[in-house]
Protein 1
Amino acid sequence: MSALLEIDDVVKHFRIGPPLRKKTFPAVKGVSLRIEAGTSYGLVGESGSGKTTVARMVAHLTTPTSGRIRFDGRDVTGLRGRRLREFRQSVQMVFQDPYGALNPRMTVLELISEPWEIHGLHSRADRRRRATTLLDQVGLAASALERKPVEFSGGQRQRIMIARALALEPRLIVADEPVSALDVSVQAQVLNLMKDLQDELGLSYLFISHDLSVVEFVCDRIGVMLLGELVEEGAREELYRSPRTQYTRTLLDAIPSLPTATLAGNETGAE
Amino acid sequence: MIWYLFQRLLALLPTVLVPLVLVFLLIRLAPGDPASIILGDQATQQQIAALRHQMGLDQSPIVQFGRFLSDMATLQLGQSSFLQQPVVDVIPSYAAVTIEISVLALVWALVIGIGIGAIAAFRRRHPEGRVAKALGILGISVPNYFLALVLIIVFAVAVRWFAVGGYVPPAAGLLPHLQSLMLPSLALGLGEVGFVSRITRGSLLDVIGEPFVVTAKSLGLRTSRITTTHIARLAALPLLTVIGLLAASLISGSVVIENIFGIPGIGQLMFNAVSNRDYSLIQGIVLFSGTAIIVVNLVVDILYAVVDPRVQYGAHAR
Amino acid sequence: MTTDTLALSVQNLSVTVRRPGGRYPAVRGVDFTLARSSTLGLVGESGSGKSLTALAVAGLLADNLVPAGSARFHGEELIGMPEARRRALSGSRIGFVFQEPMSALHPVLPIGVQLTEGLRAHTSLTRAQRHGRAQELLELVGLTKTRDILGNRIGQLSGGMRQRVMIAMAISCEPDLLIADEPTTALDVTLQKQVIELLGGLQERLGLSLLLITHDLGVVAQTCENVAVMYAGEIVERGRTDQIMREPGHVYTRALLDASPRIGDARRRLPSIATAAPWLRDTRELAGASGPAALREVSPQHWVREQDEREDAA
């Protein structure tokens, strides 16, 4: 059975530098991975590893220099025009900066309805109803619809971003460092939310992060990137218990560890 | 830096083309036949036809433009119909006077404007700062000819420190020469003080609020050191840009000021040329002014890159 | 412990924000001590007041933020200190490392100039001597190719290098006290480790007392002997790090520890607390507000604030 998302030896080169003296910078040097439907794949790496570039290629914000991307068995590399627009309904993106990614002059209702506006879906009344449902799903009250992003905290804005990403009922959400800018307690709320949504809606995630502890919490499979290459890949338990490459071990060692006291929530997992 | 210079010069080409095209069209689009306008009412048909042929008005526009460009490049600017002298001979002496006044005016504008702007920024919570801020607003609201008249009334008529008008050439004595330039340059410069002070104030406030100023404080640096080394450099950047803009303001402002004070500068010359429909002269003056402004802005661009090297790298700067 | 062995002794420190709508108490009743050559972690989330506390101690608050209370540096009172004295201490005996080096360092001045500003202000070294010292400082923080770096602007360096330059600047005059405000937050995890090790190494070599501000409990656990936890402008718990991590006394501390995901964690969900920065929604006025509840010593050197309904975990 084909996976939901397959990227096959994808390469991305950027041309950078002053005019007449441009150089080619290989941001991604041949990455392949699979994401099965209903699962989460975590792509970790440090700045410059190329993980964000991979995310952007999957979300079709940039096209690969070479390689193929397959979604649900279909080749979607380099889609354009109407087909691209249709494809966008299947894959949506959530960004890192909750303060920059939401237009401060739009109300929450406008922000969430924008995808429907662009794709010509649903009547006005319908949009309001659906937006209210989405807000409820992400844990925000309907009264938020008329307010503007400035009235919300970072965690709440992130939830609004998630609600907007869900508007088109995508099957895959590409989340680029969605909790890195948030405080620990708020981070916990958003991570819980993402997991719940996955259970409820059968979503799949491509989760980009530099934080291995966060990724371990959310993802089933993890890929480690270094300088444009995928150096190690594996199921969650394997990778964390017995990492195979030196780099992964370095990353794991570098995490300042907390002493393990008895942790709440260990018993049933219900909150 | 060489590359940056090259880029700047390359960007100049289209900029220079604009006034050239406008001047070219000026004569040819004005109502009436250019040749007869140039020659005036007394011209005969033959003279008009001869001039038309000489000016190449009977040829295609592209050829005309080509001839025009080569004429401009070789400074063949024709003859002033009312002064009966080649334009190239007429312009320099008048231009020198205007340049002198404009440079002085620039100095007034910068010294007084930056002073007021700095007070408005550094003493913003004190009465003097508030007064300075108000002066800036007042400055941009008051036209420079009004200031000129006020200055004349106060300094020339009432106190009699300076003459009411007229120009004394340097040959007649340095001190009288400078005295004759004092009021006009002040009037021209003060007209820009409001603008300069507001830009200074805004730019200083921007830089003062930056985190690296707190870092400088954390190192225990004296305020004077922070201001001169850390703040001034960055705050000066918008001012540099402003100087480029001022070049244009001062030249256009000089038309009025020279008229009020009776100074024989380019402004006066232009005024008369327009009144007399002296097209060749108008053309020459427009060219001169355009070139002057472009040169000033090129110098500003270079200075900017010296103060802030990041601009040399364009979009790749960080 | 007499005050002389304490690098920093803070008592009843408060910072009030003067806004057009009134005054707001951003930091209230903060007490803590920092022993010589040791490390104290000041931990809290956004809006907890930890950065403001650090800035108040260093005398670097903006004009609309008013400090009150006491902060003694080797016995000398810092709050309300005359500006000339503050300038004499800043950079020479108290160093400050800021959070975001890209904005905390001058964008255009060469690194060499910025590094030697402190030396220029506080020592009588000649230009050549300062230049030499600048190179030493860069080597001290683990950078090579020092001559190139000295001529560069900060935009030409990588993030990790910038942070090291920031640290080099702060220690340029060998201060006694180093205050580091979130020094690792903007960095990748391997760089974080390097910076933490660098700070630890510098502390040993120079005998620094270190006040480390962070939201990362893991960093605190690794580097600080003592910790003070802040919430909503107040200290809710303080004491020895190992003890507090093992047996947190205050609800908030416990909730923070619980909410942090960690490697090997088998939990399905992370317990969370509703802690949006209180000063975004709070309308507490200074007048009429009673002081913060007192800290109770639950065990030797372990202080926990009296708890009331306000801090209930969600």
Protein 2
Amino acid sequence: MIKIKKLSKFYGKKQVLNSINLEFKKGKIYGIVGENGAGKTTLFRCISGLENYKGHISSDYTKLKDHLGLLLTEPFFFSKITGKEYIRLLTNARQTEVINIEDKNIFDLPLNQYASTYSTGMKKKLALTAILLQENNVFILDEPFNGVDIQSNLIITEIIERFKKLEKTVIISSHIFSTLANTCDEIYLMKNGEIIKKVEQEGFNNLEKEMKEFIVGNRIDKLELK
Amino acid sequence: MKQYFQLQFKILNRKITDFGFPLLLGYILILLVFILLSKYLFKNTEFAIYAYGLIALSFVSKLNEPKRNDFLKSVFKKNTYKKLRLIENFIYCLPFTIFLLYEKQFMFSIILNLFAIIFTLFNFSTNVNATIPTPFSKKPFEFTIGFRRTFYIFPIAYFLTYISVTVENFNLGVFSILLIGITCFSYYSKIENEYFVWNYNLSSKEFLIEKTKTCLIYFSLSCLPIIITLAVYFLNEIDILILFFLVCCTYLTTIIFAKYSSFPNEMNMSHVILITTSFLFPPILLIFIPLFYSQSIKKLNIVLND
């Protein structure tokens, strides 16, 4: 379990997270939604220990980061490193031995090619493969479906389902509401660094409608499209 | 074209001020460091002229990056692009040319500038993304990437060792070890994204030990053919050989510690100055190594949550 109490984060004078209280349990899938700049990525970076913050984040682990698989929105790649070497770099870092990387290449990536030459979706799939092979117990997936083709989308959704059965904790952010609705147990709506709503499965249908009204509102009318 | 060079000048100025130096002082320091290092190289190294040429060309080659040139081609007309690249290469070679002229190495200064022209005429940019095999792929990433960028240095170093044996010149053999040492040193000059450090489930101390161990093992393996060859043919000089090997190992350890002492930021100017000073007076490393080490531990503790 991960417990977040009164988590706040400032960049200079600007407050990006405002007294957030959350609990993430084992075997549950959590979705975080919110518009760009709502603070989702900052929240993930704080949980991962990549940012200093005010408040408390505790977990069942002595060092949460050592059990955490973090998929960034835009994963970083070195210019002359192959897909296979990228996976090896990340698994070596966690002392996880992967005997035959090719056999674990579920997204059929060209692992002997330089990862920097991959397309956006391929890069995301490579980064995801690497954190899956790290054998983590907690996963933070920031926009895992972005730029990924429909086949891989299905695979990722299935992986998340399996994680639930394996009692892992998964936190996902996504702009594609339908994918979250299919996989998550709870969805949190973020706005201006605050959690403004918590919705459980039975409320997902209404949430999409509410979000549309809340986010879209009458903005488009302002364009006076003809 | 004028606007392009004005922009490049602005970028350079920003880099200097980002280091925390006022512009004028920054330029004076760069000039001083360049003159001092050049003088030191020519005074203390038998093959300074070749090393100097290689350094100058490695600077020029940085301008030949395919992505960069593709961008310039897309912005400028063909003739303007060629002119621009030529001027850029000459500007990069200028300090080296002036120093070569000062050293009365007229022929070498001409050769250097000829290479600068060749680098402009021939388009080294290629869209072939063929993966260069590397013996260092088991433990990515510094040596894996570095080897792919500088793989041609290794056969040159081994060839120099062969020449040193055939002409019975031990110093040339030592130079080939130094050449590999300097090459490996350059692998650690750039800082990686914090994500790659964050991923390690090691303490800061263990992380630094792991990085240093990998570096020294790979460096030793790269030098092994040279060391064995020189040890066989110049057995009487084995103590000097070991000394130079250890000096390289010490500098590699220093650069690793220095690299992480400002993490996740790039090394700052003070670190660069300290390392440069250590080239002039190596025993000072006895102070710098523990200093960089303790600074690295502090910085890494934050990312590794130690």
